[in-house]
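Summary for the steering committee. One of the milestones for this cycle was to obtain a three-dimensional model of the protein with EN2 bound, which we needed before selecting residues for the alanine scan. The sequence and ligand used are listed below.
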Amino acid sequence: SLLVLCGRSPPLRVSLFPRVLLGELEAHQDAWPFLLPVDQRSVPGYRKVIRRPMDLSTIRGRVSSNQYPDTEAFLSDLALVLDNCERFNEDRSEIGRAGLRLRSFLERRWAQLLQQS
Ligand SMILES: Cn1cc(C(=O)NCCCNC(=O)c2ccc(F)cc2)ccc1=O
C-alpha cells in the first residue's frame, strides 16, 4: 500500500498511545524508582510530604482496567509520578536525576507519537 511505499508505519490510533508509551517507560533504564509504589515505611517523611503518591504499576493497573476516561487523565497521573519525584528528591540525587531523564524521554516520545497520528 501507499503507506508501505513511503516507509511510514501505519498510524497508531491515538487511543493506543498510552499503552505504547507506558510499556516504553516501564522498560526504560531510569524507571526503577517508579516501577512500584514508594514504600512509605522505609522512606522517612514521604507520607507527610507527598499527598498523592503515584507510580507506574498503579498506572498500569488503571490502564488495564480502563479506568482512564481520557488520555489527559493518563498523562496527569504520569506527570504526578515525576512531579512527586522532583518535590521529594534533590535534582542531583540518583533518584532525582532518574526522574528528570525519564521526564525528558516521556516528553520527546509523546511528541513523536502525536506526530505519527
Ligand atoms: C520515587 N522515589 C522512589 C524511592 C525509592 O526508594 N524507590 C525504591 C528504590 C529501590 N527500588 C529498586 O531498586 C527497584 C524497584 C523495583 C524494581 F523492579 C527494581 C528495583 C524513594 C523516593 C522517591 O521519590
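Key point for the committee: The radius of gyration is 16 Å.
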